[in-house]
Write a structure and sequence with these properties.
Layout lengths: L5 E3 L23 E13 L5 E11 L2 H11 L3 E6 L3 E6 L5 E4 L1 H4 L5 E4 L5 E10 L4 E6 L20 E6 L7 E15 L6 E8 L11 E3 L5 E11 L4 E11 H14 L8 E2 L2 E5 L2 H7 L7 E6 L4 H5 L6 E5 L2 E2 L3 H9 L6 E7 L5 E7 L1 E2 L6
Antiparallel strand pairs: 1-14, 2-3, 4-5, 4-7, 5-6, 6-9, 7-8, 8-9, 10-11, 10-13, 11-12, 12-15, 13-14, 14-15, 16-23, 17-18, 18-19, 19-20, 19-21, 21-22
Length: about 375
C-alpha cells in the first residue's frame, strides 16, 4: 500500500531555498520535425536471440504545443499571499473567482492576489472545503482571463504535464514532467485533508506551487498541485513525487462554493463510523481479540454502519475482499466507492466473533473548518 509522508506545499514568506525552471518533454502524434530509429518486427538469429529490424518513426517537435499551452493558461495563474505565507491560484470566473488550496488561506487574517500583469488586489475568502483542501477567493474586478479545465478522468500514465505557479515566490514558474500514477489516496497528516484519486506527477512541485495549475499540452488544467512527498531519511521534499487534486473534483467543489458559499455535496462515500487504528499496544490495552484493523469508537447517528448493525467496540478487519489493517486502509477502500454503494464489512466483536454486514454507504458531510 502506497503511503508516503506528505507535506502541503504552501511557502512561508521567510523561506527561500533555490530556483528551478523546467521544460516539458513528451510526444504528440503529428507535426514531426525529426526521426528516431524504432524497433520493428523481430528477426531471429541462428543463436535464437531476437533482433529488432529498424524503422523510422517521426518525432514531433512539441515546443509550440508546450509554449501555446503555457501562454494559454499562464495569464490565469495568480499569486495568493496571506499574512501566513503564499501560494498560487487559478482564475475560474472572469468576475474575480479564483480557486486555490484551503491550506494556502487557512487561518489567514488578510489575503491578497497578484495577477499575471503584476496588479495586486485585496481578496476575500468566498468559501472553503477542508476535506478536499480547496478554497475559493474573490477579487473585485471583471474581465479577467480564465483557465479552461480538462477532464481528469481522461489522463493516462506517461502523459506529459506541466506545473505553473509561484514556487518559493518565484512568480510564474513552469516545470515539466509526466503523470506518474493515478488514483492515489494521500493524506496531509493530522488535521489535514485526505485526497482520493490524486494525480501523482514527476513535475517538480515546491513550496508556493500550492493552488496553482497542473496542465496538459492542450492548455487545459487537469489538476491543482497540492502535496509533495517527503523523504523520511532527510526530512526533505522527495524529488519528482508530487500530487495534484483532479480537475473534475476541483470544478465540482468550486462551483458549489461560488454558488452557495459552501459545499453541499462532497461526493465522497462515508461508512458512518469514527475509528482508531488498532496495533498490538492498543489491543493489549483494551483487551481486543485482534492486533490490527480499525476499532469503532463511535457510530454516526443513522449512518450506514449503525443501520446495518455494527456496534461500538467492533473491530473492522475486512471490507469486501480487502484486509483492513489500519484507518488508512479503510480510507483507501472508501475512496474507491461512491455514496449509495453497498459494501461487505467484516468485524471482530469484543467477544471474538467474526461477523459480516452489508453496509450502504452514505455521503461524507462537508467540513467548514
Amino acid at each position: 500500500m502506497f503511503r508516503p509522508t506528505i507535506h502541503p506545499i504552501r511557502r512561508r514568506r521567510d523561506v527561500f531555498l533555490a530556483v528551478w525552471f523546467g521544460f516539458a518533454v513528451g510526444a504528440l502524434a503529428s507535426c514531426a520535425s525529426n526521426t528516431i530509429q524504432s524497433a520493428g518486427p523481430a528477426a531471429t538469429t541462428t543463436s535464437g536471440l531476437a533482433l529488432a529490424s529498424q524503422s523510422t518513426v517521426p518525432v514531433p517537435n512539441i515546443d509550440k504545443y508546450r509554449e501555446n499551452a503555457v501562454n494559454t493558461v499562464g495569464p490565469a495563474i495568480v499569486e495568493v499571499k496571506t499574512n501566513r505565507g503564499l501560494g498560487s491560484g487559478v482564475i475560474i470566473r472572469p468576475n474575480g473567482y479564483i480557486v486555490t488550496n484551503h491550506h494556502v488561506v487557512e487561518g489567514a487574517s488578510s489575503v491578497s492576489v497578484t495577477l499575471a500583469n503584476g496588479r495586486t488586489l485585496h481578496a476575500t475568502v468566498r468559501g472553503i472545503d477542508a476535506v478536499d483542501d480547496l478554497a475559493v477567493v474573490k477579487v473585485s474586478t471583471d474581465h479577467l482571463p480564465v483557465a479552461s479545465f480538462g477532464d481528469s478522468t481522461k489522463l493516462n500514465v506517461g502523459q506529459t504535464v506541466m506545473a505553473i505557479g509561484n514556487p518559493l515566490g518565484v512568480t510564474h514558474t513552469v516545470t515539466d514532467g509526466i503523470v506518474s500514477a493515478l488514483n492515489r489516496t494521500v493524506s496531509e497528516g493530522q488535521g489535514g485533508g485526505s485526497i482520493p484519486n490524486a494525480i501523482q506527477t514527476s513535475a517538480p512541485i515546491n513550496p508556493g506551487n500550492s493552488g496553482g495549475a497542473l496542465i496538459n499540452l492542450g492548455g487545459q488544467v487537469v489538476g491543482i498541485p497540492t502535496l509533495t512527498a517527503v523523504d523520511p531519511e532527510f526530512n526533505a521534499p522527495a524529488a519528482g513525487i508530487g500530487f495534484a487534486i483532479p480537475s473534475n473534483v476541483v470544478t465540482r467543489i468550486a462551483s458549489q462554493i461560488i454558488q452557495k458559499g459552501k459545499v453541499v455535496h462532497t461526493g465522497r462515500a462515508a461508512i458512518g463510523v469514527y475509528v482508531v487504528s488498532v496495533n498490538p499496544n492498543l489491543a493489549a490495552q483494551y483487551g481486543l481479540q485482534v492486533d490490527h484493523g480499525t476499532l469503532i469508537a463511535k457510530l454516526a447517528a443513522n449512518g450506514g454502519a449503525a443501520r446495518a448493525g455494527l456496534k461500538k467496540g467492533d473491530v473492522i478487519v475486512k471490507v469486501n475482499n480487502t484486509t483492513i489493517g489500519s484507518e488508512s486502509d479503510l480510507l483507501d477502500v472508501l475512496a474507491k466507492h461512491s455514496p449509495g454503494d453497498k459494501i461487505q464489512v467484516t468485524v471482530v466483536t469484543p467477544g471474538g466473533q467474526h461477523k459480516t454486514y452489508s453496509v450502504k454507504l452514505g455521503e461524507l458531510p462537508a467540513s467548514t473548518k
